[in-house]
Amino acid sequence: MRRLARVLAMVMVGLPALAQTPNTRLIIRAQRQEVNIRTGIITVTGNVKLDYPARQIQATAAEAQYFTRERKIVLRGDVQVNQLGNTIKAETITYLIEEGQFTATPKANQQVESVYILDDPDAANTPLAATTPVEQVKPRFKQLVSPPVDIKTE
């Protein structure tokens, strides 16, 4: 446990901007975490939960890598990212911290799903489409104009 604390302390020394302000913390929880001090890469696997309060980002994934030198986070495996009510679901999502940019890629033959909360002040003033109540489910048939004719076949 002491060794892990020393490794994490060494990583944090290499990341002074992140260590100085509590607002810029990147919180990562997972079943397994590895830190490579030479490369500056933190790899986490198993039920990954990421919280980046400075950017109001929460994410879940099967695994993630944080590239400290490039300031990049790569999430893989059933990824879901939430930011200010907006969501992205994909197989892989890369987040470039400096640019504030997400790049998402789906599984083969699937699509990325995004839900965005739009600021549309005119939408509040636009009435919703009126719905007409259904009065009769069955179609009405035409009324007979003449009495039925008995057709005899020979």
Report on this model:
- This protein is mainly beta and 154 residues long.
- The protein has one domain: lipopolysaccharide transport protein A fold (Sandwich).
- 11% of the residues lie in helices and 40% in strands.
- The chain has helices at 2-13, 16-20; strands spanning 27-29, 32-36, 41-52, 57-67, 72-83, 86-96, 101-105, 113-115.
Please tag this protein with its features.
2 helices, elongated, lipopolysaccharide transport protein A fold, 154 residues, mainly beta
In CATH's first tier, which class applies? Mainly Beta
Query: Helical proportion?
Result: 10-25%
What is the CA-based Rg, rounded? Answer: 29 Å
The main sheet comes to:
8 strands, antiparallel
Q: Tell me the series of helices and strands, N- to C-terminal.
A: HHEEEEEEEE
Task: Figure out the total of helices.
Answer: 2
Q: In the CATH hierarchy, what is the architecture at level 2?
A: Sandwich
Question: What is the 3D shape?
Answer: elongated
Arithmetic mean of pLDDT: 80
- Annotated CATH topology: lipopolysaccharide transport protein A fold
DSSP strand tally: 8
Strand content: 35-45%
